[in-house]
């Protein structure tokens, strides 16, 4: 995230925020938040009585990240959505395990190649 988050108000230590509170914390109009909910599947606040939205701290942080991508870094909605989707997939535990396994396989392959090289044996 860019330095824009430094000028935004601090997020209070609370569990839930109304749409008005989230709007103020992120300096984005409530109708923009409702629109972003349609455009970004990662943004899905809890809905309770009367379809009222309740955002959690992670939602507020995500809104700030979306705002930064769109308003500061200049991404389009599609570009920001893709970036957030890829970021979330890369942070998924199964994806990390797969990447680590691939990296370990690649290292094993490099070690095997080195061990076959006569120059490697002359160093040891």
Helix content: 55-70%
Please tell me how large the radius of gyration is.
22 Å
- What is the CATH T-level topology of the largest domain? Multidrug-efflux Transporter Regulator, Chain: A, Domain 2
CATH class descriptor of the largest domain: Mainly Alpha
Order of helices and strands: EHHEEHHHH
Helix tally equals 6
Strand content: 5-15%
Distance between the termini: 47 Å
Low-confidence stretches: 1-5
Give the overall form: elongated
Instruction: Tell me the number of structural domains.
Output: 2
Looking across the biggest beta sheet, what order are the strands in? 1-3-2
Index terms:
124 residues, mainly alpha, Multidrug-efflux Transporter Regulator, Chain: A, Domain 2, three-stranded antiparallel beta sheet, 6 helices, 63% helix
What does this structure look like?
The chain has six helices and three strands, in the order βααββαααα. It has 124 residues and is mainly alpha-helical. It folds into two domains: 89 residues, Multidrug-efflux Transporter Regulator, Chain: A, Domain 2 (Orthogonal Bundle), CATH 1.10.1660.10; 26 residues, no CATH class. Strand 2 and strand 3 form a beta hairpin. The longest helix has 24 residues. The radius of gyration is 22 Å and the shape is elongated. The N terminus is likely disordered.
């Amino acid at each position: 995230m860019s330095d824009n988050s430094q000028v935004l108000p601090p997020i209070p230590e609370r569990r839930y925020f109304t749409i008005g509170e989230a709007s103020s914390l992120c300096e984005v109009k409530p109708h923009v938040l409702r629109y972003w909910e349609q455009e970004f599947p990662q943004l899905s606040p809890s809905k309770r009585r009367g379809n009222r939205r309740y955002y959690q701290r992670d939602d507020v942080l995500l809104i700030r990240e979306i705002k930064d991508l769109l308003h500061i870094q200049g991404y389009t909605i599609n570009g920001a959505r893709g970036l957030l989707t890829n970021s979330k997939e890369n942070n998924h535990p199964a994806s990390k395990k797969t990447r680590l396994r691939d990296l370990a396989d690649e290292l094993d392959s490099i070690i095997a190649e080195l061990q076959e090289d006569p120059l490697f044996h002359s160093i040891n």
